Amino acid sequence: MWAEGFSKMRSVIVDRTHYPTMNKTLIWDLPTRLFHWAFAGSLIATFVFALCVDDDSPLFRLHMIFGLVAVFLLVLRVAWGLFGSYYVRFSSLPLNPTKAAQYFAGIISGMAKRYVGHNPGSALAALAMFALVPAIVFTGLGRGGEAFEEVHEVLAYTLLAVIGAHLLGLVVHARRYDDNTAASMITGTKKVPAEAAIRSAHPAWALAFFAVAAAWTVALISSYDANAATVRVPLVGAVVQLGENEGGEGNDHGDGREDDDHDH
To answer: Could you tell me where the DSSP H helices lie in 110-236?
Structure first.
């Protein structure tokens, strides 16, 4: 049955007395799961190259490229958040401040309500990541001088803290409620009432999502100019500078030759 028909409480499971039978029910569609792991992978790659590679190394620029990939994936996720299946729509996120406070208090006491889709903790973490990633990429382009560099670093470590809190929340939730949310992002199913199921996993949309994301990423990487330290953003056409231009020496040499000709 379509999720909109899942009682008046929609995404909340109040207790098991109302729904004593909990089945492995399809909650997360394929495009959502694909985005989740692609986005996570791009962020992991970004932080690995940013933290483990010297900033003078050409490999350091890869963290900027993966950052751009993360932003494009985010654009696709925002579109899916408007038109996708019920539990991934932004309109379904439990962001009411009172309910969020009750949820976090319930986590401590062990009496928190269970949610079919996102709970207030995961919803807040998702929105924080969605807001931080574009801000990090924007301030990392190097166009705002040292002030932007400092903001970029603060935002990056803030994102790490949000990710850490999200992972900790997953562990706590799994231990308290025997509910492996991380695994549900692989299988797409959770132990919830059958009435909560979404209509389809949307495999066709997942294939389209993968094709568009892969084509965009390949085009981005293919446009990378190592000498100029630039990439051209597909669809937009803007050329983005990745760090310092190593080709500057060639320009200086050219100026020098002009001076020599003038001296002649």
So the answer is: 120-139, 145-177, 181-187, 203-222
